[in-house]
Amino acid sequence: MINYYFWIVKNSIPIEILSIENNGFHIFTSLTIHGKQIRMLIDTGASKTTFDKKRIRNFIRQKRFRKYDEMLTAFGSKKIQGHFVCIEDLWLGKFLVKNYNAALFDLENINKIYRSIGVKQIDGILGGDLLVDYNAEINYRNKILSFTLTDAK
């Protein structure tokens, strides 16, 4: 006889849903890097979680970033130079992501738009890599983002 053990750990964090431009919505949440809260735009269409190259300096110890060897496609079809850095401790609520290789881009144009309409600036974009890896679910009614870890043994 084979015994199977299966566990599920669920973790939820609050989200903020803001109405932007006649019927459009942007969804924000906070994550934590080294004990400091960072404001993130949730973008289910973004393939990778990214951080603002300038603003990330307020949250990490490293001051130098590695360049990607080639230009990357980001924000539509625009080719831009990307950088990356290893974030030692990135918290998704109660879940710790150790040594996360983060993409860095200049998000100033996005923040400029947010400032112009009175919305608080973002430190990064929470993208599909972490949303998929941690089985994320957005509950719009209760305004929470849930992450679920499972393990079958």
What do these coordinates show?
- The protein has 153 residues and is mainly beta.
- Helix content is 10%, strand content 52%.
- It is built from two helices and twelve strands; from the N terminus they run βββββββββαβαββ.
- The chain has helices spanning 108-116, 128-133, and strands at 6-20, 24-33, 36-42, 50-52, 66-67, 72-74, 78-80, 83-92, 95-105, 124-126, 137-139, 144-152.
- The strands form two sheets. It has a six-stranded mixed barrel. A two-stranded antiparallel ribbon has the order 6-7.
- A hairpin with a 2-residue loop joins strand 2 (24-33) and strand 3 (36-42).
- The longest helix has 9 residues, at 108-116.
Poorly predicted residue ranges: none
Q: What is the global morphology?
A: globular
Strand order of the largest sheet: 2-3-10-4-9-8
Mean pLDDT: 86
* Through-space gap between termini: 14 Å
- Outline the biggest β-sheet: 6 strands, mixed, barrel
